[in-house]
Design a protein that fits this description.
With 297 residues, the chain is an all-alpha fold. It has twelve helices and two strands. The longest helix has 31 residues.
Length: 297
């Protein structure tokens, strides 16, 4: 791979890392199987793209898109906590509803952003090239999001969120409103997912109503690959692992495409990556045990 392909993969890894950090909040911190992601990702892209082609400032479009993602997460949280619908089904219901909502927002199945103002142009106006400005922008956003998550999870509210994921009943007995922490966690998670969707739409120059299919698997793959690389449970290391997992995932996908593998096999490659990341510790443990047995004998 030449350097431009590697940089392009890193850019994609960075922008999808924001989505992966959102998945990390629900999957690892809140212990919630949130499938809303497949709907909130295109929701962010749809709202952001629609506002931009309507003449809105790209920054305001991204903020509104993130807020829409937050509302989608809150809806899933309310379905789960107030209507007592299981977490998995709550996410599926919201994701299903968002498909129609996204079509309503866009007015058609896809929107092109060619010729529209994009947020990266804020840096190109400073004299930077398009490629450099995109890379610097994504890097800055990921670093800021990571640092904010690290800080938030150490606050009183963040600790309540983490405790809810660890043992909801115990936390409730201490007087914490776990319904509120679940709704808050889902809202924040999907706000990040929608933010990622809005940025991806501007990065690739279009949005499509089906662009969210399989996003939850990509997010989980990034989280799991990151955990396989960095096994430190400290929050700041864990979030760094998620970012690295997203970068590695994108590099592997790029390598697979450069090896002329069929693009239709990308989902299969993703599944294999997740299986390898999940199974590696068990395989390593078995090898260590057999090695120890041979040493004893």
């Amino acid at each position: 791979m030449n350097i431009s392909v590697v940089l392009s993969s890193i850019e994609q890894g960075l922008v999808y890392a924001i989505m992966a950090l959102g998945v990390y909040l629900t999957f690892r911190i809140l212990d919630f199987p949130d499938l809303t992601v497949d709907g909130s990702f295109p929701l962010g892209a749809a709202v952001g793209a629609k506002l931009i082609v309507s003449g809105w400032n790209p920054v305001l479009a991204i903020i509104v898109a993130s807020l829409c993602g937050l509302l989608a997460g809150v809806l899933t949280g309310i379905l789960n906590t107030k209507l007592k619908i299981t977490g998995l089904l709550s996410g599926i219901l919201t994701m299903t509803a968002l498909y129609s909502i996204n079509l309503r927002v866009m007015g058609r199945a896809n929107i092109s952003l060619l010729g529209s103002n994009k947020i990266f142009e804020l840096l190109t106006d400073l004299g930077l090239s398009e490629g450099t400005s995109t890379f610097i922008f994504f890097l800055l956003v990921v670093v800021i999001v990571k640092l904010v998550i690290d800080w938030f999870l150490k606050t009183e509210v963040g600790l309540a969120l983490r405790a809810t994921g660890d043992n909801k009943q115990m936390v409730r007995s201490l007087g914490v409103n776990t319904d509120l922490t679940v709704i808050l966690g889902l809202g924040l998670s999907n706000a990040l997912v929608a933010l990622s969707g809005a940025l991806v739409a501007q990065y690739q120059g279009f949005t499509d109503v089906k662009m969210g299919i399989g996003m939850i698997i990509i997010g989980l793959a990034s989280v799991i690959i990151g955990e396989a690389i960095i096994r430190n449970t400290n929050i700041k290391w864990a979030t760094l692992g998620v970012v690295l997992g997203s970068l590695i995932y994108r590099l592997v996908i790029t390598m697979a495409l450069r090896m002329r593998l069929n693009p239709n096999d990308l989902k299969l490659i993703t599944a294999i990556l997740v299986i390898v990341a999940l199974g590696a510790p068990a395989i390593k443990e078995q090898f260590s045990f057999r090695k120890l047995e041979r040493g004893v004998n």
